[in-house]
Structure prediction request, 423 residues.
Amino acid sequence: MAKTQLLLLALVSVVPSILAQSPIFGQCVPSTATTTATTTVKTTSSTSTTKTTSTTSTTKTTSSTSTTTTVSTGGTACTVTAIAQVASATASCTAIVLSNLAVPTSTTLDLSKLKTGTTVTFAGKTTFAYTDWDSDLIQIGGQDITIQGATGSVIDGNGQAWWDGQGSNGGIDKPDHFIVLKTTGKSILQNLHIQNWPVHCFEITSASGTTITGLTLDNSAGNAPNAASGGLAAAHNSDGFDVSGSTNIVITDTTVINQDDCVAVTSGTNITVSNMVCDGGHGLSIGSIGGKSKNDVANVLFTNSVVKNSENGARIKTNSGTTGTVTNIEWSNIQVSNISIYGIDIQQDYLNGGPTGTPTNGVTITGITMSNITGTAASSAKNYYILCGSGSCSDFTFENVAITGGKADSCNFTPTSGNFQCI
Ligand SMILES: *[C@@H]1O[C@H](CO)[C@@H](O)[C@H](O)[C@H]1NC(C)=O
Ligand SMILES: *[C@@H]1O[C@H](CO)[C@@H](O)[C@H](O)[C@H]1NC(C)=O
Ligand SMILES: *[C@@H]1O[C@H](CO)[C@@H](O)[C@H](O)[C@H]1NC(C)=O
Prediction:
């Protein structure tokens, strides 16, 4: 762990006591914050750590608590307890703690223009009031950004206020994505607990160089029907991570409990998804591809993951009558169980969100590897379903693929290498 991270974790750990002591800590007050930082440095580390995290010449202090010390490069630490403080904090601070923030109606939590190198810590419970709109609720952007959750913190999207069983297909207006992420450079999101998002959770778009690790996305409360959902699960289209137009993204060590794709990559390159637990949704997906502003996806690896209680394990879906490219995609070491539709699914016939049964070939799918995909499907499911357009699939390697329990597999394209049998 980098020294900077150690320092920041230590900072998080002292925040609750400071909050209890200081009546003015709820504001963006640099002097208060710098005192906090000084205390932290002393209790947790040495002079060298302090020097590491600063470029100023005022950071050599190692003794008295009465000496103020600037910790963050070119900025100060600020704690935000009300939405009105967010704009000034993001404009001037590089260590921001959002403490029990209640985001009011008709408001987006705007962290889209963070200063380079900023750390934002969600502490306590972050909540969102209902708004009759389709705008996103949290926007995050900037270079070399760290976004993290303090121990025990929760980001609660108040999805219950929007859920009506229809997701983005109809019903009332809903925030299309809960969190839009456009971070670049060397950014990290870590240790966030997110629950009850309205429709899709993350949109990772025009992002690069970003690692997401140690998140829990829990939309299990949306499995039960509610008064508006007509007997269906109240939450719908609740994708965990939608990735588009992004490069060099890692999503790892994360649990997603939801009702749609665990991860869906629709465009971009160099995306690695590993050590996931996907529960209740539609699996680890590419697509749908075609008919969007960007329609090329390449170099995606899904590995070392569990997909359970889900419609699909691994899938690619492309849209009817559109163009695009799907190149060099690998799933390896995926354990599936209780799959209700397709264990492995590659289909080129989507139209208006549903399959037509008639594939088209404008999106090419090439360089697909399925390796060590094992587990069980429900008896009503198919273990494997491949429906390629004429000539649009090539270079598939399926090795050690063994999903059992389903019936009537159907493949109109045979992988070009490996020991796979579609029966
Ligand atoms: C993808 O990763 C490869 C290998 O690490 C690298 O050479 C290439 O530049 C990356 N592509 C992009 C668009 O960053
Ligand atoms: C199988 O998954 C479905 C969701 O697709 C779930 O409703 C059901 O409870 C699961 N069955 C078991 C035995 O876990
Ligand atoms: C196959 O994948 C499972 C996880 O699904 C993993 O535990 C196992 O080690 C893998 N086997 C090989 C030979 O890589």
In short: The CA atoms of residues 326 and 365 lie 5 Å apart. Confidence is low (pLDDT under 50) at residues 1-74. The pocket of 2-acetamido-2-deoxy-beta-D-glucopyranose (ligand 2) is lined by residues 280, 309, 338, 340 (CB under 6 Å).
